[in-house]
Amino acid sequence: MGILIDRVVLRQIRMPLVHFFETSFGRTYERHMVLVEVQSGGLSGWGEVTAGENPFYNEEWTESAWRIVRDYAAPRVLNFELADASAVDARTAHIRGHNMARGGLEAAVWDLQARMNRRPLYQEIGGGARREIPCGVSIGIQNSVAELLRKIETEVEAGYQRIKIKIKPGWDVDVIREVRRVFPKILLMGDANSAYTLADADRLAALDEFGLMMIEQPLAHDEIIDHVELQSRLRTPVCLDECIRSAHQAAQAIRMGACRIINIKLGRVGGFGEAKRVHDVCQAAGIPVWCGGMLEAGIGRAHNIALATLPNFILPGDVSASKRYWTRDVINPWVETTPHGTIVVRDTPGFGYELDLEFLDSITVRRDGIG
Length: 371
Fold this sequence. Notes:
Mean pLDDT: 96
Order of helices and strands: EEEHHHHEEHEHEHEHEHEHHEHEEEHE
CATH topology of the largest domain: TIM Barrel
Oligomer: single chain
Number of strands: 15
Structural class: alpha/beta
Distance between the termini: 21 Å
Number of helices: 13
Shape: globular
Strand content: 15-25%
CATH class of the largest domain: Alpha Beta
């Protein structure tokens, strides 16, 4: 029995962050996210497009995602009998790039399929290697080192197993030295979001003394070859993020020696189908993976939890508690962490949480239906 989608509903929601989040390409104070609802036979599945408000992380942003899903991706799946959720990828593959838009739609169909089969999403995608996923946190660039240290202390006390801090030229070596002085034993990594070039190799090599788990995406968002040379000059593992958009690119990077770790983001690679293929390539090569985050609301956060139950997600990811980002989330209950820094996987059919539709309606700034 296939899936016949009779309607796709898009919502743009606005959610202010509890605290600004700064990376090497700027500060974010609020999120404008596109949610995708697919309807079939009285059931709905939900997905979240993880694109940012501006085309800075990659080429996608809120407005482009809206247009791509509405005008190109949704019409390809409407009133067409899909064999199963994995068929969405092939139906939208003619769209060049725009993985986050495509992935938001695909995730919604996976959620719908799980609800149809009355199974939790993690089982539907073939996960379930663990019932609790290990969690880390991502801490943005702060106004001062003292402010950064206070935030790290708060997260360590909350039990998070790994601390990731954003870095950029001028906010790197001296900052991490101070963090290591105060927190000598924590699992620590730096995320550059493509802020450096190969000319900065010596500066990045200076981070070797601090025993970091990894340096994430130090060079350009579309660069693999220069990462090969950089990794050869560092003891610290390089983790690739932005430049890995497919299993093929993951295989190329691994074969060339461009990294020792890969971050998998559901939206960046276009949904669960490609995320699983990237996972499998890395697992076969002995390259560990972890689940990255894009300041998701509860729907996207729940999808990340399901993804992180696949067996090769052995490193703590960016999936953390809802309250770190939002004064109120769009799901009930909110995503919470245990005192030992894990999230317990829920067995409710679909992505595992109930939607807070009243709140969702109150923060919806735009809505459109297709079909």
